[in-house]
Every structure is written in structure tokens, then in C-alpha cells.
Amino acid sequence: MLGRILIAIAGGMVVWKYRDALREYANGNSTPARETMDGLLRTVQEKSEVLLDQAKGQVSSRLEAARDRVRAGAWERGAPTK
Length: 82
Known about the structure:
The protein has one domain. The chain has three helices and no strands. The chain has helices at residues 2-17, 19-26, 30-76.
């Protein structure tokens, strides 16, 4: 959820920064705007992939730590484990 919010904020900032190039594209002068947008979309894709990878790593490590705590608590009480 946090990653999606960050991506939306980053996308909004990118659109705001390149609003003039977008306006040129809308008016029919597409060559410079097309190159700019291609680079921009590539950057947004790379950044979003990095953010999603970081979020995945954090979620995985927290879930693994929780599983370890649950297993340790069951072992301390003498409950059988699988």
C-alpha cells in the first residue's frame, strides 16, 4: 500500500515537472516530447521496481521474524512443533 502511494506521488511530481513537454505533445509537436516521455517512463519504471523490491524485502523479513517468534514461543511452552 505504501509503495503504491509513493509511486502515485512520484508519478504526480514527474507530470508536474514535465508539464511543458506534455503540453507540446498535446499540441502536435511530438518528437522531443516523445523522447522525453520515453526517458521519463523508463525512470518511473526503474524507481517503482526498486521501491517494490524494497517493500517486498521488508515484508518478507518481518513475516519471517514473526514466524520465528511464534515458533520460539511454542517451543518454550513445551508444545509440539511440526
